[in-house]
Amino acid sequence: MTSSDGSQQKNSSRGLLGWIEFRLPIISFLDHSVGTKYPAPRNLTYLWNFGSLAGLALVLQIITGVILAMHYVPTAEGAFSSVERIMRDVNYGWLIRYMHANGASLFFAVIYIHLFRGLYYGSYKYPRELLWLIGTLIFLVMIMTAFFGYVLPWGQMSFWAATVITSVFSAIPIIGDSIVIWFRGDFSVGEALIRRSYSLHYLLPFVIAGLAVLHLWALHQHKSNNPLGIDMQGPQDSIPFHPYYTTKDLVGVGFYFLALAALVFYAPNALGEPENFMPADPLLTPNHIVPEWYMLPFYAILRSIPDKAFGVTALILSFAVIFIVPWLDTSKVRSARFRPIYKQCFWLFVLDVFILGWIGKSPADGIYILIGQFATAYYFIHFLILLPLIGKLESPKSLPDSIAGSAVEDNKVWRGL
Amino acid sequence: MRGCVLVTIFVFVFGANTAIAAVDALDPKSVDWPFSGALGRFDEDSLRRGLDIYLNACSYCHSLKFVAYRNLIDIGISENEAKKIAAQNLFKDGPNEIGEMFDRPGRLSDKFFSPFPNDQAARFANGGALPPDLSLIVKSRRNGPNYIYSLLTGYGELPPQDFELLQGMQYNSYFSGRQIAMPPPLYEGFVNNAQGAPATIEEMAYDVTQFLSWAAEPKMDIRKRLGLNVIIFLIILTGLFIAIKRQVWKEIH
User: Fold this and answer.
1) Is A33 exposed, middle or buried (0-12, 13-18, 19+ CB in 10 A)?
2) What's the whole-model pTM score?
3) Do A265 and B227 meet the contact criterion of CB atoms below 8 Å apart?
4) Quick check: is B175 in a domain?
5) Chain A contacts of B248, Cβ < 8 Å?
6) Which pLDDT belongs to residue B15?
7) How many CB pairs under 8 A join A and B?
8) Which side of chain B, N or C, has fewer Cβ within a 10 Å radius?
9) What are the residues facing B103 on neighbouring strands?
């Protein structure tokens, strides 16, 4: 009895944190996860900030979303006016709602940079394939969450986007029409869809949070990739996450909040559609039905193929190819810095995605259809032909021996920050 | 590879130039609004004149469902004055203690009086056209303030010879299809302008558009004012983060 008391006394001697640590080793867990015991490559650039920024964006969306849910009314009658009530009568409701709406846009911007970073530096390659798969799954769940969220204000664009997207399922042979009715919960888009959108829009962010934990778990197993794409070989190649990357991430956090504040306070509706300030009207089709900017490239792929079933197939495939990138890329070299041909193709692919985005915003007629079809074709050519082929044909530049050896020149450009 | 890039850029630029071909309405006139830009604020005198025009013209056909009379205090109308404006219309209320509905004068807590009990009644009274609610009219149109101003000042022009003007419609080059069911809502000298002289249609359109812009986004002034504080704070905070980071990383670089 006395000896066990004594040891307990000894272990809890380091204050409150020590007391907690003895019973629940969460302090050392954090220290090993994001603290002094987690080694990170010493040469990570600011492009490696976007993972933690995505986490921040998710947390902000959940906090603002929970507050909005306290005031929102998920009915066809009440949805639009409850949103206006939030904007006009709820204390700082306008701030919370503008943070939520623009936060969603910024969340996608962060995720796209994160994703393209992974593509450029080959972060998806052995042994990080599963890390990539979980990440793309998060992206998919984010898109679903955003769709359900877009339905909720029940403006014209909410209604008609929901009509277009749900009718996509009718492309499935034989059972398509039944699936559309099952999905809408009614024969037309209406209150049943609002209520299930509300329910799922509240649920899915927590699914994302769960997937993010798996994403981090897989990340910690083999640690971060880096701009050179070569493995850490010893302590000379790494620095502890804290204080180095905690402070570097904070700089990103500062800029993230500045970007969010600029949007929220000075251009809160710049990324939205004016049409959505008109209440949903099933009898009045808008001239131009467009999704939010972050879905435009995929919308362009869907529309570029005149046949509905094939268009939907192309849309599904456009996601599928992102999932299987680790097995499409045949090169063993990770970083595009050492892959001269892939590097050029990467930027061409970025350009292609921007063209698709522009086409997604333009009316579907004349020359736009043609450009859209070429851009769609190139999208698939990049993944299905160029990615496997370049790995076989290209002769990569020689890789440096170690991170420590070339890290110094790496950070030159950004040293000011 | 480089050739590919050039061709794509060429297509991009060429495509963008041919983008806007067949638009049926004219682009809105460009007005210099006091509330545009980061430091822009609503002009309260103009808002009050705009309210006057709204009450004497727009409100006979249009509703303003999301704005309450109490909100007028935010644009410098005194409480007594706002109460008087509210009491000009009778609102249906009830049931009372004997279970009957009754009419009573409007109160500060009421939303602006809707001239028609429902959309059907509104259409019936307006030759089949529905006068839209004006609470969000400025935000629900692209380039909203300029568009509303252009529409209000866009009457009086004669349609081209071959233009087919439908029964009961007005020619207005700023409306989609160039014809609109709304008759010209403003008349010269309808109210007085800032100098006390009879107002021109342009002056009235300017004031009422500003009033409707306020009605659509009543929190704009506080948003921009708070935004300035937040951004100054964030610039200092980010500067601090950069300083900390540089200090910590000193021996690594």
Assistant:
1) middle
2) 0.92
3) yes
4) no
5) 243-244, 247
6) 39
7) 106
8) N
9) B92
